[in-house]
Design a protein that fits this description.
Blueprint (H helix, E strand, L loop, with lengths): L11 H18 L3 H14 L1 H9 L8 H18 L8 H20 L7 H21 L5 H8 L3 H10 L28 H16 L3 H12 L4 H8 L3 H36 L1
């Protein structure tokens, strides 16, 4: 009776990984710079299937597949440049970790329709992982309180993180809902031009009451669109101080606008009663 072969033939990906390891090891030993570059290029080409397969894991998540493939292949090139054969368990494992890291970073940095603060982005990733783990343990969807306990954060923070997920992908205003009505048809009518002019005039008067330092801060943030770090460097204060100053100024302007609006309503009511 013929003996059974219990060891399957190595896959093409395994062969590609072994070939890449050999090519990169030779590139490190090679003293000819041009030849070393060609060897690394060959190693990258032999592992393109790995990069493409990892990119496909993230398809249908709101990011163009060609962009994901490009990110994965660039990460593969980066891996080939940084790989050392005497560290770790092979190029395939090293490259996979690098590619997955770059794909996740791509989603974190550029895939948001409306980008929330970094704190919420990182918290959202932890929330997704905790929700999946608890669903497997509890055999049901976890409650908000259970998620808060798992993440060791307040319940309000969990709700805030859940809300930021809606900023990940934008819906088209022209897309009809199940009743066949487009979102753009449900938007309120534009404000009266006179109201907008009155608001701008009120806001200009409020801004004029600010100190020159406060006006400069507003100019750097909302006209030149500088980051808080850049503003802090320009004003000689910390980023935290810039954040607090901005919040205080915006809150003061908002209160001023609300007060002006209430005064207008009161005047209108008085005029009507008098009439």
């Amino acid at each position: 009776m013929a003996s059974l072969n219990l060891h399957p033939a190595p896959s093409s990906r395994d062969n590609g990984s072994a070939q890449a390891d050999a090519l990169l090891a030779e590139a490190l030993r090679c003293k000819d710079g041009d030849r070393a570059v060609r060897l690394r290029q060959e190693a990258v080409v032999s592992m393109l299937d790995l990069a493409d397969a990892l990119a496909r894991r993230y398809r249908d998540r709101g990011v163009d597949q060609d962009d994901l493939t490009q990110v994965a292949r660039m990460a593969l090139v980066k891996s080939a440049r940084g790989y050392r054969p005497d560290h770790g368990s092979g190029f395939a494992a090293y490259a996979s970790a690098t590619i997955l890291g770059e794909l996740k970073r791509h989603f974190r940095d550029v895939a948001w329709s409306v980008r929330p603060p970094r704190r919420l982005q990182e918290q959202r990733a932890g929330l997704v992982a905790a929700e999946e783990r608890l669903r497997g343990e509890l055999l049901r969807s976890p409650s908000t309180q259970e998620l808060a306990a798992a993440l060791e954060i307040a319940r309000d923070q969990v709700l805030e993180t859940m809300a930021c997920s809606s900023a990940y992908r934008a819906d088209s205003l022209d897309a009809p809902n199940p009743r066949g009505v487009a979102l753009c048809d449900l938007l309120p009518a534009e404000r009266d031009a006179f109201d907008a002019l009155e608001t701008r005039a009120t806001l200009a008067a409020l801004v004029a009451e600010l100190s020159s330092r406060e006006r400069r801060l507003l100019y750097l943030r909302f006209v030149e669109e500088q980051t808080q770090s850049q503003i802090g460097h320009a004003l000689g204060v910390s980023q935290m101080q810039v954040s607090r100053l901005l919040s205080a100024i915006v809150a003061r302007l908002r209160l001023g606008l609300l007060g002006a609006a209430e005064a207008c309503v009161a005047d209108d009511l008085t005029a009507r009663r008098a009439g």
